Amino acid sequence: MPYDATGVLPRPLPQEIDDGTNLLVSGPAMSGTRTLLFELVARGEPDGEGAVLTTSTDPAETVIDDYEAIRGGDSAFRHVIDCVSTQSGSASPAPGVHHVSSPSDLTGIGIEFSGVAEAAEAAGVDRLRVGFDSLSPVLMYVDVQRLFRFLHVFTSQIQSQGWLGVFAIDPESQDDQTITTLSQLFDGVLEVRLHDGTQEVRLRGLADAPTDWLPVAGVRQ
To answer: Is 101 part of any domain?
Structure first.
């Protein structure tokens, strides 16, 4: 059964995304990629879908506050894999929060994600939306080949389970070859920009041909 994107992606972009899809959301800082990612993940919660957020940018507390502001309330099944707080010395136990040592700890991220998947199964949650904000800080710690190998396993797990993966990246912080290399792992790339103060998106993949730039209501940060 497809994942609903109604009200998040502007028409004529797809309003449903096939299960097992991995989507790369690519946009520069302050273009609204983070909020768009959160909206795509939160869109499934009214239908009983679970949410898993990996953060390499902000601590879990900030992520939860921002996500639940978009969600409009508490989540039934929401877990956060925090790659920031341990390194900064601010990590503290909290329900649904899993800490790894740093954004370079790809093994730790994989272990925690597997644990969340087991928790979802135990809770009877068989549909998950998985958000990763963002791949760019990870590339400050590991080379693209190592990240590629990690993402190959990570996205394959999402695909095999029939979940939805949404990953953010800042193309202005990476060279074109890095973006091209990582994009191979994804079924589609949703490009984001601000144009005259309006957020616009266009989609490559998940359709027969790339779309034109389309405005998104409101300005997201």
So the answer is: yes
